[in-house]
Amino acid sequence: MKHRPRYVLEYLLLRFFQFFLANLPYRAALFLGWCAAVFTHYIMRYRVAEACRRMEEVFPGRYTARQKRRMAWRSWRDFAFSVVDIFRLPAIDQRWIRRHVVGAGEAKRVIMEHCGTGIGAVITSAHMGAGEVASVLM
Questions:
Q1: CA 22 to mean position of chain CA atoms
Q2: Within 13 Å and on the Cβ side, how many CA atoms surround 15?
Q3: Is the separation of the CB atoms in 70 and 103 below 8 Å?
Q4: Between the CA of residue 60 and those of 52, 73, 114, what are the distances in Å?
Q5: What is the enclosing helix (H) or strand (E) of 25?
Q6: What angle do CA 104, 83, 31 make, to 5 degrees?
Q7: What is the dihedral of CA 88, 90, 91, 95, to 10 degrees?
Q8: CA distance 18 to 14
Q9: pLDDT digits (tens, 9 = 90+) for 34-68
Q10: pTM score, two decimals?
Q11: CB of 30 closer than 8 Å to CB of 84
Q12: C-beta of residue 26 within 8 angstroms of C-beta of residue 100
């Protein structure tokens, strides 16, 4: 199968950024993710109008243009943070979870306590952030 040079270059750049972000201190990696989000959202205006249009379609007249732009920014920023977390996934372990995930210790205690009952359970969570990180927690 022949690959176009553009796609090979994009793949190599993506792997470089993954390696780079995975080996930086966490806050530095998040800062770079934030910088990328600022550049693509405020400078390149990547899909901002489309995000605002969809919000108006779902919530007609409920939000002002400013509120929609703010929600679009926060959503895009949080997506960038999730990408950083996904890139760092191979380095995430239980120690990292205890340091960075609020309530992880209590959640683990409750789950382990329930496991001793022999009764099944359904575990749910909000659809926020990188759900892949939750798999490490479990």
A1: 14
A2: 6
A3: no
A4: 11, 19, 44
A5: none
A6: 85
A7: 110
A8: 6
A9: 999 999 999 998 899 999 999 999 999 999 999 99
A10: 0.75
A11: yes
A12: yes
Q: How many CA atoms lie within 13 A of 73 on its CB side?
A: 12
Q: What is the 3-class SS of 51-100, one letter each residue?
A: HHHHHHHHCCCCCCHHHHHHHHHHHHHHHHHHHHHHHCHHHCCHHHHHHH
Locus of tokens 């950083």: 84
Phi and psi at 122, nearest 5°, equal -115, 125
pLDDT of residue 46: 86
Q: What is the DSSP letter of 126?
A: -
Local structure of 136: helix, strand or coil: helix
Residue of higher predicted confidence among 127 and 68: 68
The residue whose two tokens read 């992880």 is 104
Residue 5 CA to residue 18 CA, distance in Å, equals 20
C-alpha to C-alpha distance for 38 and 95, rounded to whole angstroms? 30
